[in-house]
Amino acid sequence: MSFFKNLFSKKNNDTEAPQTSKVQEAKEPLPEMFQGMSLDIFTEDGAELLTGQVSEYSGTNLTLERLPGWLAFETCPLGSTVFVRGYNRRMQSFNLRGTVVESSRVLIKLRDLSVEHIPNVRKSFRLPINCSASIFRGDDERFSRPEQCVLIDISTGGACVESEYVHPEDEVVFLRFKLDDYPTMTFKGQIIRGSEHKDDRFRYGVLFAQLTRDELTNLTRTLYNIQTGNRQIWDRNEIGTWG
């Protein structure tokens, strides 16, 4: 209401209007983005629409294309508002608002990007992976009985895996995987949801136990490098970790 009161106020308040306008026009700068980095797109109600990779980025315009090996996009009505989520260089997640100007099964184009803070969108950015991994039951302390699975996506908080094995919710497991040419990682977690996917296979959401500082640092740096296609920012040190 205060904005409209200022807009239609008496003449003795006219001098304050330009100052209010200047404050409102100030916008938070957009984060740096790279060609090839992965981003999540959400609808206005917080539902995940698609995950794609940056193919063009200029000013407040952004184009995403399909990730290699991934299926077609869900299309979105032109003119609709969507939200973009990713990581910046400091491994802090960011949210952007944009308007859809082109949407097909292979790409989506957005314009008028602006920074947006959205409380109902997941806190951890999920990076699509689609690589082989292994699940170990919680009592397999020697990791001698691996169950082969597919790591669908991963974040610093957990992962989604696809498996032919049945696991109950709340079961404690260990998830072991190797991303690209980075060292093998093993995390303890708990299955918090499961559903039948297709062809007698199941998809599980695994919530990681609280990571140590070193585990969190190594995982976030690895995810960031994979997301941006960057192999130069972090170099392996003499003991085999990344820092």
Description:
This protein is mainly beta and 243 residues long. The protein has two domains: 38-115; 127-228, Beta Barrel (Thrombin, subunit H). It is built from three helices and twelve strands, in the order ααββββββββββββα. It has helices spanning 2-7, 17-25, 213-228, and strands at 38-42, 48-58, 61-65, 81-87, 93-103, 107-115, 127-137, 147-154, 158-163, 172-177, 185-196, 202-208. It is globular and about 55 Å long. The model is unreliable at 1-25 and 231-243 (pLDDT under 50).
Topology readout:
Layout (H helix, E strand, L loop, with lengths): L1 H6 L9 H9 L12 E5 L5 E11 L2 E5 L15 E7 L5 E11 L3 E9 L11 E11 L9 E8 L3 E6 L8 E6 L7 E12 L5 E7 L4 H16 L15
Antiparallel strand pairs: 1-2, 1-4, 2-3, 3-6, 4-5, 5-6, 7-8, 7-10, 8-9, 9-12, 10-11, 11-12
Q: What does the average pLDDT come to?
A: 80
Strand order of the largest sheet: 1-2-3-6-5-4
DSSP strand content? 35-45%
Quick one: overall form? globular
Q: Could you give a short account of the major beta sheet? A: 6 strands, antiparallel, barrel
